Amino acid sequence: MGRHTSIYMFNKEKAAANLYEDLQHRTYHAGTFKKFIEDRNKEFNTYNMSFSSILEIIKTDANLLTPDDLFEITLFLSNHIYNLSKQEDWNTSMKQIESLYNHYGIIELFKLPTKTVCTAYMFQYGNYTEYFPLDEIKGDDGGANILSEDFLRFNDYVILVMKRIIESKLNDNDDQLTDEEEKIIEAIKIENKDNSHLFEVVENELNFLIDMASNDNDGPYSQTIYYANVFLSKAIEMKLKIDIEKNSRIVIVDSY
């Protein structure tokens, strides 16, 4: 099994109304969610997932789902779509999942494309939290549920690191940022002008990546450099989408 990393936020009202009701009562093409959880607990001796506990969290506030809870939900829904549309192409299946997520109040902000890119991104999360510890609800398998404000601060760090990679011309992509992206980056710098420690961490990470990538080939360090523009663009996209008044928490699902 490869590594799968995705970042989510929620519309808790939709989740409480639609996701709660369907996971409790609906029989999907993949069966019922209750049976799915029972089978997963039997399949893995270390599992102790609770169907009723997951439903209660969704009913109360989906923002409090653990990464493990959300992984089981998204895996179950993906199985449902797979069984529903075996003859469909990949793009059609992805549109069906997106539509289903929207109905259930699950908003997928970023789905990392490969195992190595997942590792590269989560290395950045690990590096940031080493210097700037966060209050996390951690998953047993990986990932974290964190306050949106904390995620956005990490997200700003990602933007700054990727900006330094791009302007240092470390890859052959000839990445060009838009005027809007440059304005957002400049605003982040101004907002953090008194946080010298942040900029020290960014520069140290840049130098570390330069040193490691020379012997890394297609590993996570070189992929961080190669995907710098993608990481930066997605980070800016997430920054613009997340409203801390509406989206109180962010869940990073990171499963092996």
Automatic annotation (TrEMBL):
Name of this protein: Uncharacterized protein
Organism per entry: Chryseobacterium gallinarum
